Structures are given as C-alpha cells and as structure tokens.
C-alpha cells in the first residue's frame, strides 16, 4: 500500500514506473497556474507574466481553470472568506498539485497579524509547498520560489497534495473550527451546485 | 432691563461673526445659500473647494435633500466612533460636479441606538455605503431594504469590528487559535 501511495503515477500506472523521472521532469516544465490573485501580491503577477520577467519561458502559464492547473499561487493575505474559495478551488485541482504562498501574510499574518479577518497560518488549512517571505516579494523572489518548487517537484519533495490526502482529518478539523461546522453545505454549495 | 438687552446684543454679534466667517468666494456663497434654506445647520468653509456642515440628526435627511440640488454625487458615507462621548459621527461626503466643491455633512447620533433615515431615494448609490456603515458600525438605516451581512462573515458581522470597543486581540485569539508566536498580550511593542 505504501509503495502504491508513493507517487501519483506509480499509483495509477505501476508498469510505467520506469518513466517516472521523465514524468516529473515534464511536470516541472509545464506548470499551469490557477489565475486566482488573492491579495496585494497579485500586483506582482502582471510584471511576472509580461515581457520584463516573462515567466512563460519556464513553461508556466496563467490559466483560469482549476481543472487544468498544477500550481496554485496564493498571492498574499488570506481572509476566511477567501479561504473558503481557496479550499474549494484547491480541491478541484487534480493531483498532483502544488502551492506557493507569497509574502509574510500566509506564513504568520504579516502586517495584518492582529487583524480580525486575516488567517494567521495558512499551512493549518491547506498544505503549502513553498513559502516566499517578504512584503511584498519582488518578482525575482517569486522566480526564486518557482525555481525552488521546480527543484522540489523533480526530487519528489513537493508532496503537499499527498499530505493533504493523508492528513485530511486534521485539515478538515481546522477548517471546520474556523468556518463552523457544515460550511461546505452552507456556502460552497451555493457557488457550486454539484458538490 | 439689562437682562433683556444682553442676549440681543450677543445674538447680533454671533450673526455678524458667522457672516464675517464666510469668505466671498464660491464656497462661501454656496454655504450661505444652503444655510439660508436650512437655518438649523452650521456651515463653514475649510479651504478652497472644501466646505463643511454640521446638522442635527433629525434634520439630516431634509438637509441632504436640499443639498442634493447642488451636490449631485454622494461620494461616501463614513462613520467615526466617539467612544468617550458615546456617539457616532456619520459623515456624508458630497461632490458637486457643477461647482467643483466637496462638502462634508456631519451629524451625531447616539451610540446605543444608532438610527438614521436612509438617503437611497436621494442618491440610489447610498445603498452600498449604508450597508457598509451598517456592517462595520451597526448603524441602522431605516428604509434600506438590504441591510445585513455584506462584506463580512456572519461571525464578524455580529461584532461590528470597526467599533472602538471591539476587542480585536481577544477576537483574534478566539478565532485563529493561540499558537502563533507573536501574539502576546503582555508585550508593549510588537515586531512585525
Ligand atoms: S505580505 Fe505584504 S504584500 Fe503580501 S499580502 Fe501581506 S501585506 Fe500584502
């Protein structure tokens, strides 16, 4: 069982284990990003995607559909209201999926740490693979984070999606504590009729 | 005889003072014009293109209706919480397109029962601003049909978080847990 859980591809297609390094390399080279800018860090996205820093040379692409994405950028502070959307969006992304958190706000609340509506520790609610410190991180820092996540994908360290699966009860407990029991039924079903 | 005379003199002086205070500019003329129609209000010119009125809360709607002839746009409704005086100060910010003048209309309402009539029938855009003021301070705008949770989560909405007596740190501790490191009530300085 543990062997089967080892990686997504081995879990699905045991006999293709031979090609695992190739798949990892391909995944790292074709990250598609959910275009969901959640805070001030969203300001870094336009220069990152346009001519000056031009992130498409890494094979990354902003993509408005969570169903076809790998990488979720959480670009800044997260309020409980946004967090609900983030969690639903995150769960819609197919495995394997990775999260980069920008700035100090998702790490510990940042400048909003004593504010009534900013989540203090994002890692309690969804698994983060790479956190970029700074308020706000420059595009260079974001690109450094991207390099880091590419390295982690290739070496298999970026396992947030696995952690989320294995510790789902813990994440779910924290989410329920924050939003109140039954928030999925109350809120998410209003936005997405099928869940 | 003396007692009868004295107040008259004072009244005259006060009136003269007010007339003197208003400068002979378009702002001064605007204020004078409005005050003529609305003698219950106080008005002054702050500086170029900024004027200010203080209105008792019973008359605020009449005053705004009068003002809306000159001031076509309602820019914002803001609330200031004067905790020690136990009052909310509601400020209507108006902009006159025809005159290029910004007016602030201030009114004070008691903190324990903050009620005001809605001004949606004068400026329909007031609906949004009133909902916001209601949500963050708990002011009730009578006649606005959509008061209720709008930007905030229901849990925050109950507390009206921008009121001065809202215990922010206690709320943070309650909602987000105590296990983040920089939270410490005994500290006097916090390092971000
Ligand atoms: S870390 Fe700074 S830039 Fe990033 S979301 Fe927080 S306040 Fe905004």
UniProtKB/TrEMBL annotation, chain A:
Keywords per UniProt: 4Fe-4S, Iron, Iron-sulfur, Metal-binding, NAD
All residue ranges annotated as the NADH:ubiquinone oxidoreductase-like 20kDa subunit domain in the record: 37-148
UniProt keyword Iron present: yes
Coiled coil: none
GO annotations of cellular component type: respiratory chain complex I
InterPro entries: NADH_UbQ_OxRdtase-like_20kDa, NADH_UQ_OxRdtase_20Kd_su
Pfam family, one: Oxidored_q6
Keyword Ribosomal protein: no
Gene Ontology molecular function: any one: NADH dehydrogenase (ubiquinone) activity
GO biological process terms on file: aerobic respiration; electron transport coupled proton transport
UniProt family annotation: Belongs to the complex I 20 kDa subunit family.
Protein name as catalogued: NADH dehydrogenase subunit B
Species this chain originates from: Thermococcus cleftensis (strain DSM 27260 / KACC 17922 / CL1)
Lineage: Archaea, Methanobacteriati, Methanobacteriota, Thermococci, Thermococcales
TrEMBL record, chain B:
Pfam families: Complex1_30kDa
InterPro entries according to UniProt: NADH_quin_OxRdtase_su_C/D-like (IPR037232), NADH_UbQ_OxRdtase_30kDa_su (IPR001268)
Top-rank taxon, per record: Archaea
Domain NADH:ubiquinone oxidoreductase 30kDa subunit per the UniProt entry, residue ranges: 54-171
A GO molecular-function descriptor: NADH dehydrogenase (ubiquinone) activity
Family: Belongs to the complex I 30 kDa subunit family.
Protein name: NADH dehydrogenase subunit C
Source organism: Thermococcus cleftensis (strain DSM 27260 / KACC 17922 / CL1)
């Amino acid at each position: 069982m543990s062997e089967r859980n080892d990686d997504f591809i081995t879990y699905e297609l045991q006999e293709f284990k031979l090609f695992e390094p190739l798949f990892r390399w391909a995944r790292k080279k074709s990250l598609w990003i959910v275009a969901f800018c959640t805070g001030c860090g969203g300001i870094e996205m336009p220069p990152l995607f346009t001519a000056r820093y031009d992130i498409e040379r890494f094979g990354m692409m902003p993509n408005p559909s969570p169903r076809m994405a790998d990488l979720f950028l959480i670009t800044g502070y997260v309020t409980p209201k946004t967090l609900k959307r983030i969690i639903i969006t995150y769960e819609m992304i197919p495995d394997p999926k990775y999260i980069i958190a920008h700035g100090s706000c998702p790490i510990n609340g940042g400048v909003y740490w004593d504010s009534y509506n900013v989540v203090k520790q994002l890692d309690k609610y969804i698994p983060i693979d790479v956190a970029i410190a700074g308020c706000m991180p420059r595009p260079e820092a974001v690109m450094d984070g991207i390099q880091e996540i590419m390295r982690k994908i290739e070496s298999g360290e970026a396992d947030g999606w696995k952690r989320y699966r294995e510790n789902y009860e813990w994440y779910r407990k924290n989410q329920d504590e924050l939003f109140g029991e039954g928030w999925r039924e109350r809120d998410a079903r209003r936005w997405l009729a099928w869940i | 005889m003396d007692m009868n005379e004295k107040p008259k003199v004072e009244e005259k002086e006060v009136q003269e003072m007010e007339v003197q205070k208003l400068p002979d500019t378009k702002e001064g003329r605007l204020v004078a014009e409005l005050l003529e129609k609305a003698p219950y209000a106080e008005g002054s010119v702050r500086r170029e293109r900024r004027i200010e009125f203080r209105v008792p809360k019973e008359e605020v709607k009449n005053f705004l209706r009068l003002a809306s002839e000159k001031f076509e746009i309602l820019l914002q409704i803001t609330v200031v919480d004067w905790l020690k005086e136990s009052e909310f100060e509601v400020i209507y910010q108006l902009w006159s397109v025809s005159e290029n003048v910004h007016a602030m209309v201030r009114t004070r309402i008691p903190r324990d029962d903050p009620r005001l009539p809605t001004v949606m029938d004068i400026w329909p855009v007031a609906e949004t601003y009133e909902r916001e003021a209601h949500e963050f301070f708990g002011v009730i705008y009578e006649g606005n049909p959509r008061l209720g949770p709008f930007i905030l989560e229901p849990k925050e909405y109950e507390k009206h978080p921008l009121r001065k007596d809202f215990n922010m740190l206690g709320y943070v501790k309650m909602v987000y847990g105590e296990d983040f490191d920089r939270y410490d009530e005994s500290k006097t300085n916090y390092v971000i």
